[in-house]
Model the fold of this input.
Amino acid sequence: MASSKVWFITGTSSGFGRSMTEYALSQGDIVVATLRKPQVLSDLTARYSADKLLVLKVDVTKQEDIDEAFARTRSAFGRLDVVFNNAGYGVFTEIEGTPDDEARELFETNFWGAANVSRAAVKFFREVNQPGKGGILLQISSSTGFHAFPGFGYYAASKHALEGFSDALAKELPDSWNINICIIEPGAFHTDGNRGIVVLPQHPAYVDESFPTSVLHRVMKSPVLEGDPHKLTRTVYEVVQGGKIPKRLPMGLDALEMLNLRIEDLKATVDDTKRWSVDLKRADGGSDTRST
Done:
């Protein structure tokens, strides 16, 4: 039987974070569960001892909270195997109808919070774990990270940013550190975290019922989301246990369909625009003709 792993999970009050916390604990693993309101996990702290579950108050928009949480993890367990970088939320309305402060607050959590947790995770894997042991960083993105939806412009932008950041970070890490980054891209899943979506008033220029965001406003009143979040977290857990960590993990047939649409769109773009790039090289072949 594989030895237990130590998990560091953000955003554990609901959704994928709560589900992964429960499942990892049920499998005998150790969990550092972070969230803004620790009392939400009182049912779990009553069932699991402190050597199995450490609940910490963390707001990922505060660097001092992140630093303290990783320091507490080191003090309590001396190692860390998996970081499930999950904290985030959505804002729904047109881009023109989103106030700047709402958009910036979204980015503070979805991008900057996730980015700063990522930096702390990499440092822990490299400097606290045994040399070469490394670790696994699971970035909870979204299928909107590669296929945006109307009404979720800033949310999609935050996930696009996280994907670009994660892709670059993965390419910067030397193989000898043995740190694996996996960008998880769920489609539509029915989680209680969906209740945390901030729905803002519709911009008056878009109220025509035939407009894309008007259609989605109606859908949002009673959405039908077929994805089972518990199946997702069990699957991600199996991927971690398997040891071969993919760089990207789209989750759900809808996510795969959207990814295929994105691939087809990119291929069409290459075919349609290639002729405009054929003759863009410098005539001198790129040599530096400046005098020294």
